[in-house]
C-alpha cells in the first residue's frame, strides 16, 4: 500500500485550502493509499473528534501534530499544501534525501511572495499549479521546470442534477437574491459587490435585490461599515440565513481556482463572476454557460445583473456545466501519478549531506512567515516544554495556554521598541507614511505613483490604520501595512526610500542606507511647534519634534516663503544634512495637470458618488480645520438651510479633519444633498478638482485650491480666540486679499451664488506663496534624490524620544 503525508496549516478551520486537503484525502483514500495528515496548528482530542464526526469518511485517516514530522517522515509522497510552508522541503531534503516532496500552490499566484520561495523551490520533487498561465509565470520567475498543472480535487461536489431547480431568478416573494460565501479579506473584493448593490438599488431602483454575505475574516467591520455607508441595511445581510434561490456573485480579484463558484454551479445556481485580475477565474470557467462575466465597471456590471435577474434560468445550461465540472475532476489520483511518474535524480537537488536545518530552525522560520506576531521566541520555549513528561501536560491545558498568550501579547505590544532594526535595504521597496496611516493621499501618494512609473517592479508599502485605508492603497496596487505592527517595522527596514508628510514612528528608527523624504502636509497659515503662542504647548511639541526632524534627508517645498516658515516652525537649521528641494509639491502637480480635465472630473464623480457623471452638478467643498478638542459640530452655520437656499443642482461636500472623523455620520445624514465621506477614502486634491467653490477657515486647503482659479470663501467664527491660542504666520487679508467673515446661513448661501469673477486672491497666492509649483515636480524630485543619495552616506538618528 502506498503512503502519503499531507502537511497543512489547520484542517480544523474552514477555508479553501482545508477543503482542497480534505478532497485530496478523499481521492487518495478511494485509490487505496494510506494517509497521514500533519496539522501545523496544535489541535486537541476534542477538535479531532468533532472533525471526524462531521467527516466520518475521513475518520480512518491518521492525524498527527506537526512536531511528529521530526520522526515520522518516510512516505511515498509528502505534500506541502501551503506556500509559506515551503521551507519544510529544505528540512525534509536534509534528513530524507530521497523523499518525493510535492509542493501545492493553493494561493492565487500574485499573492505569493515568489522572491521568498526561490530559496526552497529547488528542494521539491514537483510543484503543482492550477493553470497553465500560473505555471508559466512560476517557472519563469523561479527558474524551476519540475511543475505540472492540475486543478484541485472536486471530490466533495455531487456532479449530478440537484433539486429544486429554479427556473426564475425571482424567489416566491419576488426578491432577486445574490449570495457570496467567502473569507472576508481584501483579495475577495466584496466592497465592489456592495458598490454594485448601491447602484442597482438606489440608482436603478431595483429594491427587490438582496445580497447575502456569508463568511468571516479581517474585513468584517469594513463590510458592516460599507453597508451603513451605502444605506443598504434593508438589502444586504451578513451571516444571516441564506436563501435557497440565489445567483452566486463573485467579484474576487484573485482566485487560484474558485471552489465556491464550482459549488454553486454544482448546486444548480447561475454565477455572476469577475474573471480575475490575472484572468485565472476566466481560465478555469471559460467553457461554462450558466454564468455571466463582470468587468469591474459598475454601470456595465449593474446592467448585466439587471438583465440576468429578469431572464429565465435554463436547465440545459446547468446540465452543460455539470459535464464541464466532471471533465475538470476526471480521475484525480491517476492524473497526479502520471505527472510525477518520472523519478527525479538525486543530483537534481541542492547538496543535502547534512541536515539543511534543525526542527527548531524550521519552526522559527515558519512562525515568522505564517504568524509574525512577536511571540515566536516564546513559542519555541512552549514547544520544548510540551515534550516534558509532567510540565508538558500542564502547559497544554487550554486555560493556561490562553492566559499566557494574552499576557505575552500585551507584553510584546508594550515592548515593540525592542524590535531589532535589521533589514536588507533596497530601492525596489518604497515606504509611504501618509497622515500617520489615517489616510492615503497628499504628496506621499503622488510621489509613490511617480516612483512606480519608473520602477514598475518595486513594492510600495503604505502605512494604514484600518481596512478603509487598505482599500484605497490597494486600488493603486500598493501594499498596506497596519501602522505600528511588527510587519510594518519589518518592511520599513527593507525600504531605501521613506516618504512621509508628518513624522515616522519612533520605533521604526532609521537604518544607515535609508533616505527620508519629508513633504509636510500643507502650506502653514496657523503657527506650529516652535512658533506656537501657547508657551507650555510650544515647549512640549518642540522637545518631541526635534529628534524626529533629524531623520529627514530631504524636504519638499512650494516656495522660498514656505521654507522660511517651516525653518522657523521646525528649527530646520539644527539638521545639517537636510536638503531643501525647490521643485514644488507632487500633490499640486496633480492639480496643475488636471485642473481643467473634464475626463478626470468625470472619473472622480463616479469614484465618490458611484453614479453616472452629471456635468450640471455644482459642488461646494466645506473644509473646517480642527480646534484641538472635541466638539459636536464644526460650524454654527446650518448647512441644511444653506443647501436649501441653493439651486437644486448645488450640493455640499463636508471634508472633516481626520481628528473629527467621528462626526461623519452626523453630517452625511443631514440631507441627501450634503455628503460626508469616510476620511480614509478621501484624497482632498481630488475633491478640489470635483468642486467649484471652497469654504474653509484656517486650513491650508485655501492655498492649494487657489491653483485652480476657483472661488474661495473664508468662514471665520472664532478668529480672536484662535489668534490667542495658536496664532497666524501672516494676515491672509493683507497678503492675499482674502477676508474672513462669520456668515449666517443665508449670508453664506448668498456668498456662494454671488460670483463677481474676481480671482485676485488666487493670483496673489500663486504669486507670493506657491511660487515653485510646477508640472513634472514628482519626477524631478526623484531624479535629484536618487542621484544624490547614491553618492552620499546618510547619518543614522539613534536619539529617539522616550
UniProtKB/TrEMBL annotation:
Location of the protein in the cell? Cell membrane
Q: Name one Pfam family in it.
A: Glyphos_transf
Q: Which SUPFAM superfamilies does its entry note?
A: UDP-Glycosyltransferase/glycogen phosphorylase
Keywords recorded for this protein, A-Z: Cell membrane, Membrane, Teichoic acid biosynthesis, Transferase
Q: Main localization of the protein?
A: membrane
**Membrane topology of the entry:** Peripheral membrane protein
Which family is this protein grouped under?
Belongs to the CDP-glycerol glycerophosphotransferase family.
Tell me the protein's name. Answer: CDP-glycerol glycerophosphotransferase family protein
From which lineage does this chain's organism come? Bacteria, Bacillati, Bacillota, Bacilli, Lactobacillales
Amino acid at each position: 500500500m502506498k503512503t502519503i503525508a499531507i502537511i497543512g496549516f489547520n484542517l480544523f478551520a474552514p477555508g479553501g485550502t482545508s477543503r482542497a486537503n480534505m478532497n485530496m484525502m478523499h481521492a487518495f483514500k478511494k485509490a487505496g493509499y494510506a494517509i497521514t495528515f500533519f496539522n501545523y496548528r496544535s489541535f486537541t482530542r476534542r477538535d479531532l473528534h468533532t472533525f471526524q464526526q462531521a467527516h466520518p469518511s475521513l475518520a480512518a485517516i491518521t492525524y498527527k501534530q506537526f512536531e511528529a514530522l521530526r520522526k515520522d517522515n518516510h512516505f511515498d509522497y509528502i505534500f506541502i499544501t501551503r506556500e509559506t510552508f515551503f521551507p519544510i522541503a529544505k528540512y525534509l531534503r536534509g534528513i530524507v534525501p530521497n523523499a518525493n516532496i510535492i509542493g501545492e500552490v493553493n494561493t492565487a499566484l500574485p499573492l505569493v511572495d515568489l522572491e521568498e520561495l526561490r530559496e526552497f523551490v529547488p528542494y521539491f520533487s514537483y510543484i503543482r499549479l492550477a493553470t497553465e498561465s500560473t505555471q508559466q509565470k512560476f517557472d519563469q520567475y523561479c527558474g524551476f521546470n519540475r511543475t505540472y498543472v492540475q486543478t484541485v480535487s472536486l471530490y466533495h461536489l455531487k456532479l449530478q442534477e440537484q433539486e429544486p431547480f429554479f427556473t426564475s431568478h425571482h424567489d416566491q416573494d419576488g426578491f432577486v437574491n445574490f449570495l457570496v460565501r467567502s473569507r472576508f479579506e481584501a483579495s475577495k473584493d466584496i466592497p465592489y459587490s456592495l458598490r454594485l448593490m448601491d447602484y442597482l438599488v438606489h440608482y436603478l431602483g431595483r429594491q427587490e435585490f438582496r445580497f447575502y454575505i456569508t463568511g468571516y475574516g479581517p474585513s468584517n467591520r469594513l463590510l458592516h461599515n460599507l453597508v451603513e455607508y451605502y444605506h443598504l441595511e434593508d438589502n444586504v445581510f451578513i451571516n444571516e440565513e441564506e436563501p435557497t434561490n440565489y445567483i452566486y456573485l463573485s467579484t474576487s480579484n484573485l482566485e487560484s481556482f474558485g471552489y465556491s463558484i464550482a459549488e454553486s454551479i454544482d448546486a444548480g445556481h447561475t454565477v455572476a463572476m469577475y474573471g480575475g485580475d490575472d484572468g485565472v477565474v476566466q481560465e478555469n470557467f471559460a467553457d461554462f454557460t450558466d454564468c455571466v462575466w463582470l468587468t469591474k465597471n459598475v454601470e456595465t456590471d449593474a446592467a448585466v445583473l439587471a438583465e440576468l435577474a429578469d431572464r429565465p434560468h435554463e436547465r440545459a445550461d446547468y446540465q452543460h456545466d455539470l459535464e464541464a465540472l466532471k471533465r475538470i475532476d476526471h480521475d484525480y489520483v491517476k492524473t497526479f501519478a502520471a505527472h510525477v511518474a518520472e523519478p527525479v535524480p538525486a543530483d537534481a537537488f541542492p547538496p543535502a549531506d547534512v541536515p539543511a536545518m534543525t526542527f527548531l530552525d524550521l519552526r522559527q522560520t515558519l512562525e515568522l512567515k505564517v504568524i509574525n506576531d512577536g511571540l515566536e521566541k516564546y513559542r519555541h520555549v512552549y514547544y520544548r516544554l510540551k515534550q516534558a513528561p509532567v510540565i508538558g501536560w500542564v502547559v497544554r491545558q487550554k486555560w493556561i495556554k490562553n492566559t499566557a498568550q494574552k499576557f505575552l501579547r500585551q507584553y510584546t505590544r508594550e515592548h515593540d521598541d525592542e524590535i531589532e532594526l535589521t533589514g536588507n535595504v533596497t530601492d525596489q521597496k518604497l515606504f509611504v507614511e501618509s497622515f500617520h496611516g489615517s489616510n492615503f493621499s497628499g504628496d506621499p501618494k503622488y510621489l509613490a505613483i511617480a516612483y512606480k512609473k519608473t520602477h514598475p517592479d518595486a513594492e510600495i508599502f503604505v502605512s494604514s490604520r484600518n481596512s478603509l485605508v487598505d482599500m484605497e492603497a490597494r486600488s493603486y496596487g500598493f501594499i498596506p501595512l497596519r501602522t505600528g505592527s511588527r510587519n510594518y517595522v519589518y518592511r520599513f527596514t527593507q525600504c531605501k526610500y521613506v516618504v512621509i508628510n508628518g513624522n515616522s514612528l519612533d520605533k521604526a528608527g532609521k537604518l544607515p542606507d535609508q533616505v527620508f523624504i519629508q513633504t509636510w502636509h500643507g502650506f502653514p497659515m496657523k503657527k506650529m511647534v516652535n512658533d506656537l503662542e501657547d508657551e507650555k504647548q510650544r515647549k512640549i511639541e518642540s522637545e518631541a519634534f526635534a529628534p524626529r526632524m533629524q531623520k529627514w534627508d530631504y524636504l519638499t517645498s512650494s516656495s522660498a516663503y514656505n521654507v522660511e516658515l517651516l525653518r522657523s516652525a521646525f528649527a530646520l537649521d539644527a539638521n545639517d544634512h537636510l536638503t531643501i528641494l525647490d521643485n514644488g509639491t507632487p500633490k499640486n502637480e496633480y492639480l496643475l495637470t488636471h485642473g481643467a480635465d473634464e475626463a478626470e472630473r468625470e472619473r472622480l464623480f463616479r469614484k465618490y458618488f458611484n453614479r453616472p457623471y452629471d456635468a450640471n452638478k455644482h459642488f461646494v467643498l466645506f473644509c473646517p480645520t480642527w480646534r484641538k478638542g472635541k466638539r459636536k459640530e464644526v460650524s454654527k452655520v446650518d448647512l441644511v438651510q444653506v443647501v436649501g437656499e441653493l439651486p437644486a443642482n448645488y450640493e455640499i461636500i463636508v471634508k472633516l479633519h481626520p481628528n473629527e472623523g467621528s462626526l461623519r455620520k452626523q453630517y452625511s445624514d443631514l440631507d441627501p444633498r450634503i455628503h460626508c465621506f469616510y476620511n480614509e477614502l478621501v484624497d482632498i486634491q481630488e475633491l478640489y478638482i470635483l468642486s467649484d467653490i471652497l469654504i474653509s477657515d484656517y486650513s491650508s486647503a485655501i492655498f492649494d485650491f487657489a491653483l485652480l482659479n476657483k472661488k474661495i470663501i473664508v468662514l471665520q467664527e472664532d478668529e480672536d480666540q484662535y489668534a490667542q491660542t495658536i496664532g497666524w504666520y501672516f494676515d491672509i487679508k493683507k497678503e492675499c486679499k482674502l477676508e474672513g467673515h462669520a456668515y449666517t446661513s443665508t449670508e453664506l448661501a448668498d456668498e456662494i451664488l454671488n460670483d463677481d469673477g474676481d480671482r485676485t486672491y488666487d493670483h496673489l497666492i500663486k504669486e507670493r506663496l506657491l511660487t515653485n509649483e510646477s508640472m513634472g515636480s514628482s519626477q524631478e524630485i526623484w531624479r535629484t534624490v536618487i542621484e544624490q543619495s547614491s553618492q552620499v552616506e546618510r547619518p543614522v538618528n539613534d536619539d529617539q524620544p522616550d
